[in-house]
Amino acid sequence: MTWLKPVTLQDSAVALVPLSHDHRAALAEAVQDGELWKLWYTLIPTPDGMTAEIDRRLGLQDKGAMLPFTVIDKAQDKPVGMTTYMNVDAANRRVEIGSTWYRKSVQRTALNTRCKLMLLTYAFEQLDCIAVEFRTHFFNHQSREAILRLGAKQDGILRNHQIAGNGTLRDTVVFSILPPEWPTVKAHLRHRLHLTEGQDA
User: Rounded to whole angstroms, how far apart are CA atoms 138 and 186?
Assistant: First the structure.
């Protein structure tokens, strides 16, 4: 994998570091904050399943299909979640930002905006992406609203896109940001961080 290599992205408050099994125990503790794996419309690992999930993400990294990160809250100096570049299409310079979860105590804070700003900046300004996608379950209204707040635009809905583990059919809502839109989205995100530091972002 030459186009997308492990990298650390960070600002004054958050660090996105390459996912490692060294983070397993802290991530297993983090996912218990809110019992996130019980959300039926998304796939989040259980504490006992964290090793397998790290193996899965690192396996996709080895295949060039994903670049997984551990999200470190610098104030707490510990992992508070995971995020990735996924569905990597190196030939067409496209990525999806997804497979993201944060412990409940940091949800709806500036942390998510900071993470997305770093990931989008790297995607457009270092990787020269022609598009960055976001996808989520139709019923994951919190995620859909958060993606729209970033400045992404909805492309459409993939109906019966996947069969979930509980046997239900998932309609996937697809959003994207394109290079001509990036300067405005970047200014918007930086403005949000300036106005809402430590608050809902």
Answer: 26
Tokens of 112: 């998510």
Give, for 88, the enclosing helix (H) or strand (E): strand 78-89
17 forms beta bridges with 70
Q: Which domains does the chain have, with CATH numbers?
A: 9-196 (3.40.630.30)
Q: How many beta carbons lie within 10 A of that of residue 114, not counting itself?
A: 25
- pLDDT, tens digit only, all 201 positions of the chain: 468 999 999 999 999 999 999 999 999 999 998 787 777 667 788 889 999 999 999 999 999 999 999 999 999 999 999 999 999 999 999 999 999 999 999 988 899 999 999 999 999 999 999 999 999 999 989 889 989 999 999 999 999 998 987 888 999 999 999 999 999 999 999 999 986 654 444
Tokens (6 digits) for 182: 């990036």
Please state whether beta strands 94-102 and 131-137 pair in parallel, antiparallel, or not at all (unpaired).
parallel
pTM over the 0.85 mark: yes
CA 64 to chain centre: 17
